[in-house]
Specification:
Chain lengths: 196, 196
Amino acid sequence: MYDPLFDYIERYSDAELLTCDRERIASIMKPKKLRRRQFFLEEGSICAYTGFILKGAVRQFSIADKGIECINQLCIENWWITDRESFIHHIPSVYYIEAWEDTDLLVFRRQDLEILLEMPAIQRMFWKMSENNHIASQKRLDAAISLNALQRYERFVRCYPEIVQRFPLHHIASYLGVSKETLSRVRKSRVKLGHK
Amino acid sequence: MYDPLFDYIERYSDAELLTCDRERIASIMKPKKLRRRQFFLEEGSICAYTGFILKGAVRQFSIADKGIECINQLCIENWWITDRESFIHHIPSVYYIEAWEDTDLLVFRRQDLEILLEMPAIQRMFWKMSENNHIASQKRLDAAISLNALQRYERFVRCYPEIVQRFPLHHIASYLGVSKETLSRVRKSRVKLGHK
DNA sequence: CGCGGGTTTGATGATGCTCAAGCCCGGTGG
DNA sequence: CCACCGGGCTTGAGCATCATCAAACCCGCG
């Protein structure tokens, strides 16, 4: 069951994991199950775990005034979920993290982070992830600022084709920062143009 | 001349620098001057340095189709500048980084990164910075998606009052993702409301 | 059968972009 | 000393994009 995680670490750290590392990781990271609609994190509470998704789909969002959900992350297999700020500094989160499908995770706690980071492969993986995160949010920002609804959706479909299938339209709309009606129309117009 | 950097590192790493660390850092990081309008990085070239701003103001932007400048960073004293992707992986950059005022920097090269990272304080500083970056781009994304022009500008002024003074209106407009005309009108409307 | 979540469709209005013109001001050269 | 120029900023008019609101539709399920 740990294999997807080991693969992920090796791919990202660009290094091979020793058997003893694997054992160490397996001794620290515990399996956790979430049922559809169950929360991994709720606003106001402290993010106790960082989790790696083995199977399932999860969304992260905050609730703006007037109770509007504002989705800022849609995750599936082989993604990490956490509220970094809350997790690291033990402060209350402003986010919700909710399973959208029944989900299997491997999780670790804050106090185990230091132990994990003793392994160079893990350290490099986190470094690389932070780099990729940085680049990805740069791109998303670019998109939000300079592209219209159609272009944003096209880019999203191109980058995350697997995710498009797994979440309802209004979640994706919220993630892209457009209304569900607009996204619905965008999809329609794309179909006409040969729904590539 | 290295003091602002040392202060910065201590503040971010939340640790004190030993004299030997200071010497090591000073032996690695070289001063560099840029004159107004001089480029620190140009599209297509590889980002050779990562720089810490001692004095001056710098902007980072890309050029979209039709030659429109798209500003994604405005930096002044005590900020780092680099194109992380290009710097780390030696790949051509898509960005320009240009001095907007005469600027004094302290810079280091890619091969010196490993040496710097041997110092725990530096490692923790970079870790912390990556965390802050992550949080900041999350917020900026939020703003881009859910706030209108006025609200975005208000937030910008609140977060970066020093920057507002140092760059012309059309740079800030581009950074916020609004047209210069719109930002001009926004400013006017704020003045009416008591220009707080 | 009726209910509810998700989606679609249409009408309307707000926001903000584009284009065009003019203004302000500091710097340069005659 | 003045005329001119250019960069930055402002103002106005018209238009595109997109949010909002309201209604209807679709479909799986109790």
